[in-house]
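Hi team, as promised in this morning's meeting, here are the two structures we talked about. I've kept the exact order from the run log so nobody has to guess. The first one is mostly here for context; it's the second one we should focus on when we meet again. Sequence first, then the predicted structure tokens.
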Amino acid sequence: MRVALPFVAAVAIQLLQEQPAPAQYPTVRKSVAVELVTDKKKPYIEHFEDVPFVTNNKVCLFPGENFGVDVTVNGKAVVVTYNPRHKKADVEFWFRQQKASNNNRQFMILEVESRLSRMLTFNAALIFPEQKRDYDTHIFHVNPKEQNFYSWPRPTVKLTLEDFRF
């Protein structure tokens, strides 16, 4: 019996090692269809293909998305990596279009929740419907273990967050 237990343990370890690794979450969106309510009668629709969630320390958000990033320091550089498990991420983002209750106008809102122990600061660039260039906006920050909200009155097709720093 003593000989069988090490053998069974060795077989179990071998079987576990042979199991394929769980599929990783995709880090690139294959296809995105953005649909926004605008002042015009028809909604604005734009399609994007093969857009990464995070690339070169830039976080890309489309309306309706909710995901997180992990933030680490490598030397003097702050490194941001995609984390699809937004509730477990260091920082969680939720970008959406919402209707104001006082005048029924649509506006964009970015909700940022930090689980970090330090204040995080970053810049943002917006792309509006039918315009192909980025419009830089003011610097954002989120305090440790807090949640911040940022809003814009214009429909926004894409929001890029960049230049993360402590």
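And here is the second protein, the one for discussion:
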Amino acid sequence: MRRIRKATVATTATGLILSVAGVNPAIADTPPLDVATIHGTGTIFPGIPLTGCVNNAHWTFDGTIAVVGDEQFVGPVHYEGDGTICESHLVGVTVGNISGSVSGSVTLSRTGVHVAVAGNVTIGGGEHSIIAGECAWTPTSVNPTTSYVLDCEAVLKS
């Protein structure tokens, strides 16, 4: 009974996240899919000013990831990346590496407080593609913004 509930939750969450991310659930393969949620806090150096933009912003993030599906675990996660454009409160693109319970190369593309996530990660020794990923970015400091909270959901395909 417990496995059936987990599978149902994973299937329902997968369809919901795929729909929100603009991916038609009908064209996404059936399992093996995993659903991941990440919550944590991070820093930006030298920070994003209220007006204008900053080049080469360095982003770090530490949080917790929970994965349901073929893989099932909760563990720590760390991200470190650098901005590839002049980052402002309106837009930003950061390319970096994730480590901890998962590892890989990840790109975060931000428009306002919405962050799209793309890349490939390794979980439990297996390669997974992020087929849909979305985060909510909440700045926690101002002028410049040097700290933030990030809440993410993603669908991973092995």
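Starting points for discussion:
Residues 2-20 form the longest helix (19 residues).
The chain has one helix and eight strands.
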